[in-house]
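Researcher: Sequence recovery benchmark, item below. Answer with residues only.
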């Protein structure tokens, strides 16, 4: 093993002991009950899994579990819009597909007038079917993507709610003069950790 490799391992080991950023507890609440103080920990280690499960069962339920109520209508609107577009494109695809099959069989379809003139040509029916099939498939893919994204969002949000975000974790810029050197201002960057 080279000397650099050994030094790198030592630095990584020593810095890992003192590199804390956050605690795993959310809050502690104290409540008096018959002259006794009870401390309640609100840390929920299975909250992300539970939120993901609820979102998988019913889209938007994981967001409600996380108490982010405004996100549930957004999820429902996105999912219902993509489902509506899938149903509408599928219905129109079936309509043009049926007309194409009837025309190929030599029968009258809905785009043929009583006098035998056609409103949409054969190539128009073929192009309409291709476009509507692509739109239908894209709507189905969009629905699946929205479904997976809302599960991931509920799980990540539940995970991030577990962390302590107090004022000790903020970035506060400040200007400080050097106590010995007063001639020219010098600029620098320093980090201060307080626990």
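Model:
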């Amino acid at each position: 093993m080279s000397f650099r490799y050994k030094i790198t391992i030592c630095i990584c080991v020593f810095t890992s002991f003192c590199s804390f950023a956050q605690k795993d507890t959310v809050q502690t609440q104290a409540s008096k009950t018959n002259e006794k103080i009870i401390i309640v920990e609100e840390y929920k280690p299975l909250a992300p899994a539970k939120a993901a499960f609820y979102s998988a069962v019913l889209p938007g339920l994981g967001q409600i579990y996380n108490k982010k109520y405004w996100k549930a209508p957004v999820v429902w609107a996105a999912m219902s819009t993509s489902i509506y577009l899938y149903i509408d494109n599928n219905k129109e695809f079936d309509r043009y597909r049926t007309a194409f099959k009837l025309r190929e069989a030599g029968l009258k379809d809905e785009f043929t007038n009583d006098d035998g003139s056609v409103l949409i040509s054969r190539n128009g029916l073929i192009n309409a079917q291709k476009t509507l099939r692509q739109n239908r498939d894209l709507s189905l893919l969009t629905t699946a993507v929205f479904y997976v994204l809302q599960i991931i969002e509920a799980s990540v949000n539940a995970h991030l709610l577990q962390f302590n975000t107090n004022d000790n974790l903020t970035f506060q810029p400040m200007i400080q003069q050097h106590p010995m050197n007063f001639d020219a201002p010098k600029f620098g960057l320093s980090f201060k950790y307080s626990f």
